[in-house]
Amino acid sequence: MVWAIGDIQGCHDSFMRLLQEINFKPNRDKLWIAGDLVNRGEDSLSTLRYLYEIRDSIVVVLGNHDLALIAAYLGIKKSNSSIEPILQADDADKLIAWLRSQKFLHLDFDLGYAMSHAGISPEFDLGTAVHLASKIESKLQSSNYKEWLIKMFGKNVDHYDMDAKDSELEKYILSSFIRMRFCYESGRLDFKQKGAPNYLLKEKQGLIPWFDSPNRKKLELKVIFGHWSTLGYYNDSSVCCLDTGCVWGGSMTAMRIDDGSEEIAQIDCS
């Protein structure tokens, strides 16, 4: 069986209960995890260690909180009580190195799905998305990744300009894969609004979910994403959001993706 799971954010106990709910067996099954493995939950270290332990049975895409952990490890960003145990752990170097080796975008044409933490920019067709994700993956995995991340943690770039200088283009690529929620009809992204889509946002501010952009490029695969707890579970013919706000007292959600059923399993979080 193959299951996709929304944001874990260090909610280790809830994650373990969800795996029990779906009867997950690492030697038999596969997990797709839509980013934000750590931060805010009660035990990010145990979460990350478990994922590393079953690394051959999982597919991971990186989220904004995962990048924040890497930045804290480098001293670029401040740590906090949730991720500090990871930074102080004896195996911190190994865990961070493994995290850096993960993807921003995963595709499976046999299953019919793509996965990225925040989704795929409405301005990207699938080939462009693959190419640009690979571009920033190679930067994160390079020997000078610290210098690259310092450049990335500035002001977000909200539009796609192929003629922009590399650092500005890469900021847009990274932001779209890990921070995107709303956009304008033109496709330009908005990074300020974090609430749920509603009539007033659309009518007064012109903000719509990225996947509702009228100019969104047609993709061959259905996109699984997380990052948007205020949207919650959302599933249509082209996208599925699996972030159901466990860390905020909501639920943690898994969806089966190997048999066409899109069966949902959820556990309540406290």
> Architecture, CATH level 2?
4-Layer Sandwich
Query: Which word captures the global form?
Result: globular
Report strand order across the widest sheet.
Answer: 3-2-1-12-13
Number of helices: 9
- Under CATH at level 1, the class stands as Alpha Beta
- What is the terminal-to-terminal distance? 27 Å
- The class by helix and strand makeup works out as alpha/beta
- For the record, the count of structural domains works out to 1
How much β-strand is present in the residues?
15-25%
Layout of strands and helices, then pairs:
Blueprint: E1 2-5, H1 12-21, E2 30-33, H2 44-53, E3 58-60, H3 64-74, H4 84-88, H5 92-100, E4 106-108, E5 113-115, H6 126-140, H7 145-152, H8 166-178, E6 182-183, E7 189-190, H9 199-205, E8 208-209, E9 222-225, E10 234-235, E11 239-241, E12 251-256, E13 264-268
Parallel strand pairs: 1-2, 2-3, 5-9, 9-11
Antiparallel strand pairs: 1-12, 4-5, 6-7, 6-8, 10-11, 12-13
Helix pairs in contact: 6-8
Overview of this protein structure:
This protein has 270 residues and is an alpha/beta fold. The chain contains 9 helices and 13 strands. It has a single domain (2-268), classed as 4-Layer Sandwich (Purple Acid Phosphatase, chain A, domain 2). Helix 6 (126-140) packs across helix 8. The longest helix is centred in the middle third of the chain and has 15 residues, at 126-140. The mean pLDDT is 95.
